[in-house]
User: Fold these one by one.
Assistant:
Number 1:
Amino acid sequence: MVLALQSYTGFARFNAEGAIANVVVLSITRELAPVLAGLMVAGRIGAAMAAEIGTMRVTEQIDALSTLSTNPFNYLVVPRIISGTIALPFLVIVADVIGVMGGYLVSVYKLGFNPTIYLQKTWEFVQPIDIISGLVKASFFGFLISLLGCYHGYNSDGGAQGVGRATTNAVVGASILILAANYILTEVFFSNIQ
Amino acid sequence: MTQQVPKISIKNIKKSFGSKTVLNGLNLDLFAGESLVVIGGSGTGKSVMLKNILGLLEPDSGSIEVDGSEVVGINSKEREKTLSKIGMLFQNAALFDSLTVWENVAFPLVQGKKASKETAKVAAFEKLKAVGLTEEVAELYPVEISGGMRKRVGLARAIVTEPEILFFDEPTTGLDPIMGDIINDLIVSCVKTLGATALSITHDMASAFKIADRIAMLYQGKIIWLGNAKDIRNSGNDYVEQFINGRANGPIKMEFRKI
C-alpha cells in the first residue's frame, strides 16, 4: 500500500501514474514478498529452531538421541530444512496476493483509479517468471533460514547463554545471507532478460 | 574374575580440551555381568570417559573395545550397531521435551528397532510399571513431572530395549536421599533382571556402595584405585580415603575450573 502511494507521488512528477499497477505487482512478486517474508520468518522460525535445537543440545537430548541409535542430524535437521524449503514459497504466495490487494485498495479508493483497468493492467503486465522467480527465491531463503537455525542450535554450548547466542547468530546470519542471496538470485534470473 | 574377554575394554585413552588434559592414559576393563562404579570428584573426567565410549566424543589416542571390537573411529553405521547394545541414563535424564513420557520410553523401540507404535506402547507401559510409575504419568510431558520421576522415566527408556550394557551418569545427583535410594534399588534390580553389565559414574558414595560390585577411583585422568566395593574402606590409598570420607583436606586438591 505504501508502495502504491509512494509510486504515485513519485510518478506523478512525470505524469506516469498509469504505471503504478505494474510497479506494484512487479516489485512485490519479484522482491518484496520473498525478502520481507524471508526476514520475518528468519526472526520467527529460524530463531525458534535455533532455540529448540540449542536447548536440546545443552540438556543432552541430542546426545541421548545418538545413544538411542537415532542419527540426530537425520531426525532433527533434515525434516526442518525440507519443511522450511517447502513452506516459505506458500507463505510468499499469500504475501503476493495480499501485497497486490493492498496496492489495489490504495489505488482504487484513495487515488481514484478505475478498478477494472488496474486489475487488467496487473494481469497483463505480470509474467510467470516474475512470480516463479519470487517463489524460487523464497524456497532458497527457507532453506537458508532452517539451515542456519539448525546449524547454530546444533552447535550451541554453554547453557542458556549459549542458546541465546545461537538464536541471535541464526537470525543475524540468515538475514544477511537472505539479502546477499537475493542479489545473486536476481542477477541469475534477470540478467539475461530485459 | 576369570580370563574372559572384557565386555568393555578401555586402553590408555587420552583426551584433552585445549590445553586442559582430562583423560591421561585411562585403562579400565569391564567384565560381563558385573556392576562397576567409577567414583571421582567433579571435573575429573568421568562423564568424558562415558562419552568417549559412546562415541559422543573421540579420544585423542588410545583404544576402546566393546565386545572385543574397536569402537574408536568407526563409521556411523557400526556405531549404531554398538550403541544398540547400550542403554544410557543421563544425568538430567535428557528426556525429549516434545514427547510424552510413554513416547519417550517407546522412542528407542520405534526409532531404533523400527517397532510398531502399538507394540512399543505396550512395552513402554510395562517398563514404566517396572520403575514404579503409573499410567497417568505416562500421558504427561517431561516438564510436568518431578526430578525423581524424570530419572525413573530415563531409566525406563534406558532399559526398554533390554540392552546388554547399561551406563548410569550420576544417577542420584539432584535427588533427595530417599529418592536417591529408590533409584539405586531400581538400578540394582534392573541390572539383575536384565543380567546386564553396568558402568556407573557417581560421586555419591552411598549410591556407589549400593550398586557396585567393583569400584574404580578416577583422579587426574587415570584410574588410581580399583577393587571390590567391600574393600574400599581399607584401600590404604590416601586419595580414596579422602574421597570416600569426604574430607576437604588431603592429597586431592580441588581445581576450581569447569571442563
Number 2:
Amino acid sequence: MKVIEQEIAALKNTINEMWALVHQQIYNAGEAMLTGDKELAYKVLSRERRVNAFELKIDSDCEDIIALYAPVAIDLRFVLAMYKINTNLERLGDFAESIARFSVNLPEGEPIDPELVKIARVEEMLHELLSMISLTQEAFEKESSEIASRIFLKDNIIDEINHDSTPLIAQYIEAHPGSALAGLYMAGVIRKMERFGDHCTNIAEELIFYLDAKVMKHIGKTEEK
Amino acid sequence: MIKIDAQNVDFYYGDFHALKNISMQIEANTSVAFIGPSGCGKSTFLRLFNRMNDLIPDTRLEGKIFIDGRDIYSKGEKVDTLRKNVGMVFQKPNPFPKTIFENVAYGLRVNGVKDNEYIEETVIKSLKQVVLWDEVKDKLKDSAFALSGGQQQRLCIARALAISPSILLMDEPTSALDPISTGKIEDLIHELKKEYTIVIVTHNMQQAARVSDKTGYFYLGELVEYGETRKIFTNPEKESTQNYITGRFG
C-alpha cells in the first residue's frame, strides 16, 4: 500500500471512530432527556471533550495530507469531504452536549412530562435522527452514494415534525402553565434537532461529492424556489 | 480556433507500434499538458508536431496532423518553415557555445535576417518575454554557459521565441531545474500562452495541473483521456487516469 493510501486509511479509521462516538453521545443525551438520568447527562458532557479532540486531530490530518501528498481526484475529494464531515460531526457533538445540559437543568428527580414528549413527537424525532446518523456512517463504510441519498428523504420527516411542533407545544403550555419552562426548553430541543437533520444532510452531500463528484448542495432549496 | 488537429495518428518505430489511433484537437492560445508513464508515447506525439521524428530512421506515420489547417506531413510542406512556426524547448537547457546575445539572435541570423537594429530589438524583446532581461542586460556578451540552469532554460525559450513561432513545444522543460527556476518557467507558460499555443510533456503531475488548460493522459501508446485539466485532476472519466494521477498506477 502506498503511503498516501495508508494516510487515507488512517484518516478513515479516525473519522469512523468519531462517527461512532457522536452517535453514542446523541443516543445517551436523548436517553438522559427522556428518562431524567442526570448521571448519563453528565457523562455526555464529559465526553464532549473527546469529540472536540477528534475534530482537532482530523483537521490536522487533512491539512497534513494536503500539504505533504498533494492529493488529486478521488483522494482530493475524500480529504475535502472528510474535512467538512468533521465539522458537521463536531456540531452534532455540540448538539448532544446541549441536550445533555437541558437534562441537567431539569428539576431534580423529575423526568420530562411524557405528555409533552408525546405531543412534540420528540422520541420519534430522536429515533429518526439516530437512524440518519447510522445511515450516513453506513454509506461511508460501504462507500455507497445510494445509501447516502436516502438521508435526504429522512430529513423531510424531521422538518415536518419541527414544523408541526410549535402550535402543539403552545397548546401544551396553555394547558400546563406550570410547565411553561419545560415546554419552551422542549421547543428549543426540537429546533436543535431540526438543525441536526441539516447536519446529517450536509454529511450525505459531502459523501456523494466524495464518491460521485456530484455537488448536491442547495439543489433542494433551488427546487423549492 | 483549432491550432493543432491530429486525426487518427498511428506511429511506428520499425515494428513497434508507438502511437495508436490518436486524435486530438488543441485550441490556439491554450496550454496542453501530456502526462503518462515513461514509454507511453507522449514525447513521440509531441515531436510529431514539428516533425522531429523525421530524423529517426525506420519510422512511419499514419493519419494526419494539421497545423492552422495545413497538413504538415503532406508533400511540399517545408520542414524548416514548419519548425520556424513550431519552436521547441528540451529537457536539458542546450544553449549554443556563443554569447547570450548571439544565442537569441542565432535563429534570426540563420534565417537570413541582416538588419542589426531589428535583431537587437528582437533579442531584447525575447529576453524580456522570458523575464531574463533584467538578469542579463549587463552581460549580453558573456558566454551563455555562465548562466545558471534556470537562466539557460529561459534563454533557450527566448531563442525559440525570437523567430516568432506560434506554437511552443516543451519536452519536460523543468525536470533539470530547481523549484525556483521551475516556478519561473511555469509563470512564463501562463504569460506566453496569451500569444502562443503551448504543448508540454511533463512527469510532474502537479506541474501539469498548474500550467495547463487541458491534459492528455497517454498509456501504452493510446490517448486514454483528454480533457479540461480541472476535470482530469478532480474527477477523471477513466479509472486508469485516476490510478495514474493518484499514484496507484501499477
